[in-house]
Amino acid sequence: MIVSRHCASISGGISAMRRVIPLLYPLTSLGVLILVWWAAVRGFDIPDYLLPPPSAVFDALYRGFVDGSLWPHIAATLGETLSGYVIGSVLAVLLGVLLAESRTFERFVYPLLIGLQATPKVALGPLILVWFGFGMASKIVLVTLVCFFPLFVNTVNGIRRADPDLIDTCRSFSASRFYLLLHVKLPAAAGEIFAGLQIGVALALIGAVVGEFLSAQRGLGYLIASSSVSMSMSTMFAGVVLLALIGLTGAQTVRWLQRRLLFWEPGALRRDDRATGGR
């Protein structure tokens, strides 16, 4: 009994180390980057109005969190990003499924979507502001447009790459079209759908920041733009760091959901084996 508990404790410790060790690599890279940044500022005597030292950026972050001045900007950017991301992702999957399943719909709609994607979203910004106002609605629309197309294309390609032999086998058993879509095509396309979701995280943030650059009274994009006017470089860098952290958190969340939901993928099985020590 004691031996079994000891073995279980050792196994749990090894499993915990396997989860922690992958985090050490990016943290090491981040530490080296900060060290090089600090050495460059000190060694080349770069003035603060061109490149602030890391300590000034961390101080700006600390003061912003303590006095509460950063929270409204973070909340505004998160609200715009999440709302537009969810709306754009849902529309992308729905229209992608519809286009992949209907050649008629593809002939009528796909050229229009290609033309919309080819149009720079910054050029549409003033029109969106006129139509939807200067509040959060215009930023949500811009985020929706920006993150829609990559997921839309991935959904269409993933569905059309479903195994034709498996589809023919299911049809031989009189499987309905909806059954094929739900149980064959969508699972086959799930990997590409999640790849599009990961791309959409970064694009959604870009759309939110561009919208805040055009017109806003709060948000991290507005904070960066207003700080550039006052030449507060540490605040600008603090806003950039926060955007990077939000993007990283969003991308890692999507990857975590992919590992948990797409359990049938070979890569997910290998990751599960490493996490559990091969048990």
UniProtKB/TrEMBL annotation:
Keywords: Cell membrane, Membrane, Transmembrane, Transmembrane helix, Transport. GO terms for cellular component: plasma membrane. The chain crosses the membrane at residues 20-40, 82-100, 112-134, 140-159, 180-209, 229-251. The keyword Magnesium does not apply. Its main location: membrane. It is found in: Cell membrane. One of its GO terms (biological process) is transmembrane transport. It is a multi-pass membrane protein. The keyword Cell membrane applies. Gene3D superfamilies: MetI-like. It comes from the Bacteria. Residues 74-254 form the ABC transmembrane type-1 domain. Belongs to the binding-protein-dependent transport system permease family. This is ABC transporter permease. The lineage of its organism: Bacteria, Pseudomonadati, Pseudomonadota, Betaproteobacteria, Burkholderiales.
